[in-house]
Amino acid sequence: DGNTINYSTYEMLAAHMWRCLCKARGLPEDQETRLYIPTDGRSRLQPPLPPGYLGNVIFSTIPKALAGDLVSKPTWYAANQIHNAIARMDNEYLRSALDYLQLQPDLNALVRGAHTFGCPNVGINSWAKFPIYDADFGWGRPIFMRPGWILNEGLSIIIPSSTNDGGLYLAMALPPHHMKLFQEFLYDI
User: Fold this and answer.
1) Structural domain includes residue 3
2) CA-CA distance, 82 to 76, in Å (whole number)?
3) What CATH number did the domain enclosing 50 receive?
4) Against a cut of 0.85, is the pTM above it?
5) Residue 46 lies inside a defined structural domain of this protein
């Protein structure tokens, strides 16, 4: 089918989710849609920051595509959009973003929220590699963990399975009519 790249689990799952959301929302073919991906800049900046650095070094990777292309082309098309956008997040790009932020008179104007992730856009965050089930507060290993609430429509979080079987859970905020369709499309592989 023309694809020669090995994509990560995140890239393929996010690609499938992005496509399914376009279908569930009934987006027109010519509608531009954006995928907001929180990206850790610690290892991408040069020199790299230590893994335990607690400052805010989260940048937004934002691939864009037309809904019609995402829906009509193979899943790897969406995965490639994601892969290429993440690959662009290098030291030069991130330092340029930092320079841009320093020039802004009001950083509050750049804060993301409901206006960012709502239709036709989506945010997909992954907690899949976080050691969330290693947290033991004296009662033993957690049975299950998830966010208590997802504030904005279109925002989702990928969560690792509690059984260490490689499975993943999705937590997502969507209107009920979109969620029903999204679930149908998600499992129709």
Assistant:
1) no
2) 10
3) 3.30.559.10
4) yes
5) yes
The structural domain count of the chain equals 1
Structural domain boundaries, residue 111: 9-187
Task: Give 170-174 contacts, CB < 8 A, sequence gap 24+.
Answer: 170/17, 171/146, 171/147, 174/21, 174/24
Closest-CA residue to 69 (of 14, 32, 118): 32
Tell me: the pLDDT tens digits for 21-71?
Answer: 999 999 999 999 999 999 999 999 999 898 888 888 999 999 999 999 999
In a domain, 107, yes or no: yes
Q: Which residues pair with 114 in a beta bridge?
A: none
Is residue 2 domain-resident?
no
Rounded Cα–Cα distance for residues 152 and 135 (Å): 27
Tokens of 157: 């979080």
Mind spelling out the 3-state secondary structure of 73-142? CCHHHHHHHHHHHHHCCCHHHHHHHHHHHHHCCCHHHHCCCHHHHCCCCEEEEECCCCCHHHCCCCCCCC
- Angle of the 9-24 helix axis to the 75-87 helix axis, nearest 10: 120
Two tokens, residue 19:
């496509």
Closest CA to 95 of 57, 123, 64: 57
